[in-house]
Amino acid sequence: MSSDEPAARAAWLRGELERHNHLYYVLDTPQLSDAEYDELYDQLKRLEQEHPELWTPASPTARVGAPPAEGFRKVEHLTPMGSLDKVTSAEALEKWAEDVRKRLGTGEPVAYVTEPKIDGSAVSLVYEGGLLVRGATRGDGLRGEDVTQNLRTIRAIPLALRLADGEAPPPLVEVRGEVYFPLPAFRRFNERQLAEGKSPAPNPRNAAAGSLRQLDPGVTAERELSIWVYGLGFREGVPVATHAEALRWLREHGFRTNPEAARHCSIGEVAAAVAGWERRRPELGYEIDGVVVKVDAFDQQERLGALHERPRWARAYKWAPDRAQTRLVKIHVRVGRTGALNPWAQLEPVSVGGVTVSQATLHNEEDLNRKDIREGDTVIVQRAGDVIPQVVGPVLPHPVGTVPFRMPERCPLCDIPIVKPEGEVMHRCPNRACPSRGLETLIHWVGAALDIEGVGEQFVRRLWDEGLLRSMPDLYRLRPEQLAALEGYGEVSAAKAIESIERSKAQPFSRVLFGLNIPLVGWVTARALARHLGSIDRLLAASQEELQEVEGVGPDRAEAIVDWFADEENRCLVSELEELGLRFEAGEGERPSGGPLSGSTYVITGTLERRSREQAKAALEALGAKVAEAVSRKTTGVIVGESPGSKLAKAVELGVEILDEAAFERLVGGS
Ligand code: IVH
User: Fold this and answer.
1) Taken in order 462, 467, 472, 473, is the CA torsion positive or negative?
2) 509-579 carries CATH number 3.30.565.10
3) For the chain, how big is the Rg over CA atoms in Å?
4) CA–CA separation, 317 and 478 (whole Å)
5) Which member of 45, 117, 371, 634 is catalytic?
6) Does ligand 1 lie within 6 Å of residue 122's CB atom?
7) CA 565, CA 557: separation in Å to the nearest integer?
């Protein structure tokens, strides 16, 4: 390799990586697989390690790895970052346009640009000689915080302007945009928060702002933030005369501008575009809180000027908050995996911001009582984009006959008296073995449900006590060295345990469903659900009515299932397990044969209260058991109802296990 080869190779790799980065994060048209990208990236990284002199701050390898900051320096913006006056109706928009025409005074035509008002966190990016040298938050509009290292981790932000062959970069240019959380990334973020026992962010805007202010850029890097760039601040030497041209210049120089920004020649067209954005809002994949309307020509903008840093040449068209009124049918209470009781409202379905809402959170009892929200009230429901709908409050007066809400005194799942620990706002079910809670669920998961070989109750209790295990996903993240470090565990047994945990991922959907420990969903119901619905997505989407079409599912079970899946924590659990590779789709294995009782034989004697003999037989067979008429040494157990016959005496004589009706119900996963 000649001496200039590494330099040429590094330059080529950098160019390629930035090109693919741009294709992926800015244009959303990837051409390389992640693995291919990583391969190039690793080559560059190695080359830069061997030849440190080849490293440049614009290298794709320079996005991550900056050390944590101690705090953020205040920096002055090159030109102030103003704010926007708002309008909330077509009339107000017309009035503004009229004012613009009057102020310009010449009767000249006025063109406008509309673009989404992104609900994120405003930033300024300064490029000197084409290189990103500083990125800052808006702050008070004059001075913001220097968050350059954090912004460099956002792959949609170019570290260097993309220049045409021979093009000289402007000496200094300031780019403005809004950093935001794409909704899928926001969901993933909140799922991780919950999994780590941290509180989820209330909305994507807060989460984006918080992510930008992380002292450790490594944390920001994990957040999967993106940016929509919407304008230029300081722009001397940039050859643009209108906002539309500025957007084009930004796009050509590597920035992510919204492809649906549009230029209009009349305010009527602007109003139509605003309505279009409102319609599309639920499907955008990011949150917007309105549409920004800007006068296009810079010379007109300059003549119009600003008042208190609020430009006269732009308005934010904001929609009234997404609110609606409906009747609160019932207040339900669900118990989270931590035992906390969360009240939620079942609503008469109502359309809020284009989405039909039939459930809303009520936070906690204190909030509920303060607002005096009652069953039977007409309530105001609010939805902020992707965030779960909320009940804002009742429309007074309360209808006659309604009463203030009181939390149940006993746990709706296990009937144990509820407690409210000193200083806490949440009521809790103190029962660690409550079906909603962790340890029991885990024991059930490794045993009856997934049947993980060599991993049983003792194993789970031990790891629980060691703090290594709190939920099913933890099980799949255990590392052999963690187990091997435990007293009494060798490397061999640790490896074996990990191996059988890994193998359990191949267990069929019905077992996974059974393992989730959904109240009233025993093995039989789980299997019927898996067969009937076929996938978790369909199960999640099913209404109570649809669920009742499944064999053995009545109104109570249907309600329990819907309740369970309505719980954010439970949905997070499901998606985490899905990500870890557990099966959430019915497969070949979901046939009647097999099942946890296969190989066993039961005999029924006497009359059962809850099921006919036929039904009891069917339940056992569904679990894979055989049902025989006569008791023998091969009989696994005898189920004894009212007025048993001689079969009971025979069972006692042979020492065969005897199950009363309650034990039988537990066996088949009834209640
Ligand atoms: S233009 C003089 N365009 O809205 C201010 N702002 O209230 C010109 N924002 O702080 C701003 N999307 O954070 C503009 N397409 C867009 C925007 C946008 C979101 C935010 C920005 C700014 C606030 C103004």
Assistant:
1) negative
2) no
3) 31
4) 51
5) 117
6) yes
7) 12
Both tokens of 152, joined, read 């460099």
Q: How far is the CA of 7 from the centre of ligand 1 (A)?
A: 41
Where helices occur in 407-554 by DSSP H, the ranges are: 438-444, 457-465, 472-477, 480-484, 491-503, 509-515, 523-533, 536-541, 544-547
Q: Is 311 in the pocket of ligand 1 (CB under 6 A)?
A: yes
**Displacement of CA 485 from its chain's centroid (Å):** 34
What atom in ligand 1 is closest to the CA of residue 306?
2
Q: Is 154 in the pocket of ligand 1 (CB under 6 A)?
A: no
Output 467 or 165, whichever has higher pLDDT. Answer: 165
Instruction: State CA 295 to chain mean position distance.
Output: 37
| Residue 316 Cα: closest atom of ligand 1 | 7
CA angle 229/235/241 to nearest 5° reads 90
Domain 323-394 part of CATH 3.30.230.10: no
Q: How far is ligand 1, taken at its centre, from the CA of residue 99, in Å?
A: 21
Answer yes or no: are the C-beta atoms of 505 and 583 closer than 8 Å.
Answer: yes
- Which H or E run includes 206? helix 204-212
Q: What pLDDT digit, counting tens, does each position of 121-161 carry? A: 999 999 999 999 999 999 999 999 999 999 999 999 999 99
Taking the centre of ligand 1 as the mean of its atom positions, its distance from the CA of residue 515, in whole angstroms, is 48
Residue 518 vs residues 72, 338, 398, 430: alpha-carbon distances, Å? 47, 15, 35, 19
Amino acid at 578: E
Nearest Cα residue to atom 18 of ligand 1: 117
Q: Class assignment of domain 86-318?
A: alpha beta
Ligand 1 pocket, residue 295 CB under 6 Å:
no
Q: Can you tell me whether residue 149 is helix, strand or coil?
A: helix
pLDDT tens for 655-664 read 888 899 988 9
Three-state DSSP state, 259: coil
pTM of the model: 0.57
Would residue 496 show up in a list of annotated catalytic residues for this protein? no
Helix (H, G, I), strand (E, B) or coil at 53: helix
Q: Could you tell which of 117, 124, 317 is best to mutate to test the pocket of ligand 1, judged by most ligand atoms within 8 Å of the CB?
A: 117
Residue ranges per domain, the chain? Answer: 5-62, 86-318, 323-394, 435-506, 509-579, 601-668
Does residue 456 surpass a pLDDT of 70?
yes
Residue 665 C-alpha from the chain's centroid: 37
